Amino acid sequence: MLPRPRGVLLTSWLLGGVLLVFIIVPLARLIGSQSAGSLMRVAARPDVRQAILLSLEAALLATCVAAVIGVPLAYALARAEFPGKGIVGAIVDIPLAVPHTVAGIALLFVFGRRGIFGGFADRWLDLRFWGTIAGIVVAMLFVSAPYAVNAARIGFEAVDPRLEKVARTIGMGPWRVLWTITLPLAWRGIATGLTLTYARAISEFAAVVILVYYPMTAPVKIYELFLRFGLNRAAGMATLLLAITLVLLILFRYVAYGQKKATGYGR
Predict the structure, then answer these.
(1) Closest Cα to residue 200, out of 257, 252, 262, 134?
(2) pLDDT tens across 23-42, in order?
(3) How many Å apart are CA 115 and CA 102, to the nearest integer?
(4) Which site in 26, 164, 191, 215 is 20 to 30 Å from 134, CA atoms measured?
(5) Which residues contact 171 (CB under 8 A, 6 or more apart)?
(6) Measured distance CA(227)–CA(111) in Å, rounded
(7) 201-204, long-range: CB < 8 A, 24+ apart
(8) Global pTM?
(9) pLDDT tens-digit profile of 187-208?
(10) Which distant-in-sequence residues (6+ apart) come within 8 Å of 226 by Cβ?
């Protein structure tokens, strides 16, 4: 048996510890700045509760849409070979690269009052993307969908195609193979992607504030409190949103993995 590379592991932990401290210290300082009483007062405000609930609801809707249209795309990218496959994968990743203010302006050209689809939807479908939850969902979906596609794609790629071929040889149809073999085996990757999609959607600010602004989601409300009342007032709602997000993230990861070790993309 080869000895463990203790020097390499020690160096990895020392350098990685810097990143952990970089993440933990600001969040710990934020949480430490608020007392239980101040958090209760912030939570008692109707506008704060409404903004947080709106974020949670819109993020859930965006995640559901990402599951319906993103997971099938992930399956196609994982199982099919076709010209331009790399270009399709790059298009999926574009929202991760562009500033979200740019994303918001781009979405405004499509879903705004005079947008390509926004004007049509307003006239013929009575559907508006400004001042409604529909616009918030669109903005959240644009910036968070890549997480659903990429993680699900890795989950599908981890499933041995030979298992699917064996199932087909014993008479199972392609849809039955998909539902009974492929999806259950790729579930962890899919669940990871949807969890990351939900978390990213909740936190979106720039695209939402440009496309919609009102009604205010939690990040937009925090920004408004910061501009109007300063750091302390905004910190209270920020701490409350952080606590809710962390609880939901832990819950979703537990539902997806239980007591098992999480491995792979995003874990």
Answers:
(1) 252
(2) 999 889 888 888 888 888 88
(3) 16
(4) 191
(5) none
(6) 28
(7) 201/58, 201/59, 201/62, 201/63, 201/140, 201/141, 201/143, 201/144, 202/55, 202/56, 202/59, 202/241, 202/245, 203/245, 204/100, 204/139, 204/140, 204/143, 204/144
(8) 0.85
(9) 999 999 999 999 999 999 999 9
(10) 233, 234
